[in-house]
Structure formats: structure tokens, C-alpha cells
Design goal:
The protein is α+β, with helices and mostly antiparallel strands. It has helices at 41-44, 68-83, 103-115, 126-133, 174-189, 195-205, 236-259, 263-272, 286-294, 307-317, 319-325; strands spanning 2-5, 9-14, 18-24, 27-30, 36-39, 54-57, 60-61, 64-65, 92-97, 120-125, 144-149, 154-160, 163-170, 191-192, 216-223, 229-235, 274-277, 298-300, 326-327. Strands 3-2-1-9-10-19 form a six-stranded mixed beta sheet, with helices on both faces.
Length: 333
């Protein structure tokens, strides 16, 4: 099975079945006993709504493990949920990790998966998995550029001959967009909203380029002055301005990666364009903006959310390809 262990969502791909599970990477635990109460969708409903003795945590931060034990419990839950209660079956697992991962972070992912019930664990770099999932010809001697905008990290990479030539991992992505919206409403209207509301605003009226008529969205939150709940209307123009800084950082990452690209590959990318994957690629007008700033064609792959998971799955189906693209465990003597 292939797992896309993301900051916002975890996806599981099972050989022969495709992507079988898409759940938020959230775990609710009881703070006094440390017992896991809920994982995934059920736990996400609890964010910001829990009583004192329950905490809803997102164990992944910036694409890497922030809370080891909770991640392990989460992986265990996802693995057992997909293979059912047949405890004798221990799957071979491929997990995607961000490019800038340190050896310690890699080992944490390996350990968490092994203790979560995997037989063997292979790691693959996220942009590589996204490129394979998007159907790019990664093994040919031509340059392919992939931009994977997730929850915690934006991975930009140029891939050729089955390897990453240049890569840039920017720790600015979907979560930062939500944060920007929260801060904007706090500053402008003294209105406090939660992460989930911010995410709803982003998906409904958020955009990277202003086009079309102005849209409005009703936001409910807590007024910081009176302390009472209140409703306001925000316009798509304001949200666009709030998001501009985050979008700028993502663009910067893409430009840095292009600057480091060898000229032959840069010429290939000029022809083939940049492919976008990940949930952040769904932000309205982001592809047009990147195209305008880099003067290159930009495409969003189909089902960008599932690209990385599909890639891990494809890698599993051809083990010989797997041997070429996985990250070998570094020997620690």
C-alpha cells in the first residue's frame, strides 16, 4: 500500500483498488490517559470544539512528524482500517516525505510505520511521487517540473531520468493561507475565527488572481471587542489581498528552483510546462498567476489532491521502478 502522509490529509492507496482512504491528519486524544478517541474525519469535526479533557492534534507539522506517538497511532489506525481486521497480513508500505527531510525525520517516519503494522517501509520524495501520479515521463532524459502545494509544504522539483535534479521545499502552503485569512479578519474586523472556517473561506472565495465579479461570503466568529458571536460579510478582493503574501512565497520558491535548473532541462520545461499537484493547486487562478510570472505554460493535473497517493501506488505496482526512485536508508554506524 502507498501512503501520502500529509500535514492536512492522509491518503492511502491500495494495490489494485486505487485510493481507498482520504482522511484529515487529525487525532483526538484524551489528555489525562493519552487514549486515542478518534482519528481522521471524526477527529477533524472536533477541532476547536473539544472539552478540557480531550485534545484534537495534528501530529504532522510542515510535512514532517511533530508528535511521534500520535503519528504512530494514526498510521496504525489507517493501516488497520484499509486491510481490515486481518492481523496476520502486514503490508509493504511506500510513504512520501518532503525533499528537505533530515535523516532523523526519515527515521521517525520509518519507525512510526513499522510500529504501526507495516512489514517493510520504503520512502519516496514527495515531488517524485506527485510527478509519477500526475503521469509525467519521469524516466526519460527530459526535464519535468512539478509543483506540489500541500498543507504544510510546497515542493518544487525538476525531475529527469528518474531522479530529482533540483528541488526546493518551501514551508509555506495551504495552512499558511488559512492563517493569513485568520490574521486578516482579526486585524480588520477584530473577529476571531477557527481554522476550519478559514479553510471554508479559502475554498469558496479565495483566489490568486482577481477576475470575474466580486464575491461575498458570510463569516461567523467571535467579536474580540464585545466577546459575542457575530456575522460579517467578506469580499473576494480582501481575501485575495490576505493571500497574496503566501502566494508570493510559493512563486519565489518556483523561481529559485528554475534559477538552479541546468539550461538543457530549462528548455524542456519551456516546452512541456509546469505541472501542479496537491490541494493548494485548486486555489482559483493560481495556475494563471504562475504562468504569467514565469512565462511558461502551467497545467493542473487531474485530481491534484490524489496525485501523490496515486504516485506511491504506481511505484508499488512496479517494484523495479521502486528500486530506482526510493530513498535508501542511510547507514548509521
Amino acid at each position: 500500500m502507498g501512503i501520502d502522509l500529509g500535514t492536512a490529509n492522509t491518503l492511502v492507496h491500495v494495490k489494485g483498488k486505487g485510493v481507498v482512504l482520504v482522511e484529515p491528519s487529525v487525532v483526538a486524544i484524551q489528555s489525562d490517559t493519552g487514549k486515542v478517541l478518534a482519528v481522521g474525519e471524526e477527529a477533524k469535526q472536533m477541532i476547536g470544539r473539544t472539552p478540557g479533557n480531550i485534545i484534537a492534534i495534528r501530529p504532522m507539522k510542515d510535512g514532517v512528524i511533530a508528535d511521534f506517538d500520535v503519528t504512530q497511532a494514526m498510521l496504525k489506525y489507517f493501516i488497520s482500517k484499509t486491510i481490515g481486521q486481518r492481523t496476520l497480513v502486514r503490508p509493504r508500505v511506500v510513504i512520501s516525505i518532503p525533499t528537505g527531510c533530515t535523516t532523523v525525520e526519515e527515521r521517525a517516519v520509518r519507525e512510526a510505520a513499522l510500529q504501526g503494522g507495516a512489514k517493510e517501509v520504503y520512502l519516496i520524495e514527495e515531488p517524485m511521487a506527485a510527478a509519477i501520479g500526475a503521469g509525467l515521463p519521469v524516466h526519460e532524459p527530459t526535464g519535468n517540473m512539478i509543483v506540489d502545494i500541500g498543507g504544510g509544504t510546497t515542493e518544487v522539483a525538476v525531475i529527469s531520468l528518474g531522479g530529482v535534479v533540483t528541488a526546493k521545499s518551501v514551508r509555506v502552503a495551504g495552512d499558511n493561507m488559512d492563517d493569513a485569512i485568520i490574521q486578516h479578519l482579526k486585524k480588520t474586523y477584530s473577529l476571531l475565527i477557527g481554522e476550519r472556517t478559514a479553510e471554508d473561506i479559502k475554498t469558496s472565495i479565495g483566489s490568486a488572481i482577481l477576475e470575474g465579479p466580486e464575491e461575498f461570503y458570510e463569516v461567523r466568529g467571535r467579536d474580540l471587542v464585545t466577546g459575542l458571536p457575530m456575522t460579517i460579510k467578506v469580499s473576494s478582493i480582501e481575501i485575495h489581498q490576505a493571500l497574496s503574501e503566501t502566494v508570493e512565497a510559493i512563486l519565489e520558491g518556483i523561481k529559485v528552483c528554475l534559477e538552479r535548473t541546468p539550461p538543457e532541462l530549462a528548455a524542456d520545461i519551456m516546452d512541456r510546462g509546469i505541472v501542479m499537484a496537491g490541494g493548494g493547486a485548486l486555489l482559483k487562478g493560481l495556475d494563471k498567476l504562475i504562468s504569467k510570472e514565469t512565462n511558461m505554460p502551467v497545467y493542473v493535473c487531474e485530481d491534484p489532491l490524489l496525485a501523490v497517493a496515486r504516485g506511491t501506488g504506481k511505484v508499488l505496482e512496479n517494484i523495479d521502478v521502486l528500486k530506482r526512485v526510493i530513498i535508501a536508508p542511510k547507514k548509521t554506524f
